[in-house]
Prior knowledge:
Blueprint: H1 2-18, E1 32-38, E2 43-45, E3 49-51, E4 53-58, E5 70-73, E6 79-81, E7 86-89, E8 93-101, E9 104-113, E10 119-123, E11 134-136, E12 138-142, E13 164-166, E14 171-174
Parallel strand pairs: 2-9
Antiparallel strand pairs: 1-4, 3-7, 5-8, 6-7, 8-9, 10-12, 11-14, 13-14
Amino acid sequence: MSAPRHAHVGWVLLAAACGSPGTAPTDGPGAAVGIEIELPVPRMQVGAPLQASARVVDAEGRQRTDRQVTWLSEDAGVASVDQFGVITGVAVGTARIVARSLELEAGVTVEVIPRRVARVETRTPKANVVWGSSTRVVATAFDGQGNVMVPGSLAWRSSWPDVVRVDQDGIATGV
């Protein structure tokens, strides 16, 4: 008599585990099968931060909130990434940024480009340059975030070349 009781309990557990035909499981996501990485843009400037996000998903694309990712850069000399997925451009080039969760891995490629000059401020020791005299013009370049940029090559020109000439070193001479 005890054998049928065990068989009955087994069927009840099996039915509870399988559910009714045609019904969707209600116990959350299935096994993790991949990592999805979101990157707002694939290009960034040297020194600029870019926030990436990653989520571990099951076969149906549902997020596995119980799985965390770790970040790494395959070329930290071009772009670094912190534990929160903030990528920072270090030098011009391309780098693959990787998100890992246990046995899963996904990566995206970012291109790091030179910072762009947003504005240039100039100053001179003399307010006026008269005929035959010279003064050095000093220029400071700023990026879009207001950071001073490392001096690079500047192309100097005068808006009034009949009055003032400027050479390649920024020396302004009255003519």
